[in-house]
Amino acid sequence: MRLLENKVALITGAGGGIGEGVARYFVKQGAAVVVAELNPALGEAVVSDLRTQGGRALFFKTDVSDKQNIIDAVQAAEEHFGGLDILVNNAFAPTPNVLMEDKSDEMLEQTLGTTVWAAWWAMRAALPLMRKRGGGAIINFYSIDTEIGAWLHADYNTAKSAILGLTRSAAAEWGRFNIRVNAIAPTAMGATFHKLAAENPGFAERSASMRPLGRCGEPEADIGPVVAFLASEMARFVTGESIHVDGGLHLPGYNSRPADIPVKEY
């Protein structure tokens, strides 16, 4: 039997990159998937392709910074597929890469809104549906950037640190409902990676060389199986965990300091 046979999953930001890869792997493992995506063209294209391959999928236009929109997306899972077993909080809206002193309050607010608040709203909306099913699995997306204090990502690092706290709190409290909550810190060749690779010759090769496994990750083949494992009965005794899915990048870490920033500025 496939890992996620007869399960219903909602994946935010599944119109491209890692979210799309997870959605594709989930469908192969038997899950019905709600593609909760802001961009209709991307979301519809993914769903059309999944259905062509025999999968059960629904596109629901979702702005994760809007509480009611997230609640509606979760309800769509119940209305179309009869319930919800798995929630994957992947989406976020990036802000410009600038130094911390140049990050505005609005940038931080946007990042918190599309990560921490989005996950908070989605998890709380999913709770009653998962309780009806006798349990469920939630997978939140954390980041190695928080561990190295990645330059130009101060708002993102702050938000992803909060995601880890939210994951552990929910795991501690919702275990009594048989709901498991875990986090992964993935790196893979998503939209941002391909943009950087196109703009910076040699970026892909340098990125691969930083990882002990010597290659960059594929969203579907490398990230999807780990998320599916955490969502499946194979991980029935795993909760409150955070897993790096990055080819070992977290071992050496990486230097994110821009070359044009002087060591001393005082």
UniProtKB/TrEMBL annotation:
A UniProt-annotated Pfam family: adh_short_C2
InterPro entries: NAD(P)-bd_dom_sf, Sc_DH/Rdtase_CS, SDR_fam
Family: Belongs to the short-chain dehydrogenases/reductases (SDR) family.
Record's protein name: SDR family oxidoreductase
Organism: Halopseudomonas formosensis
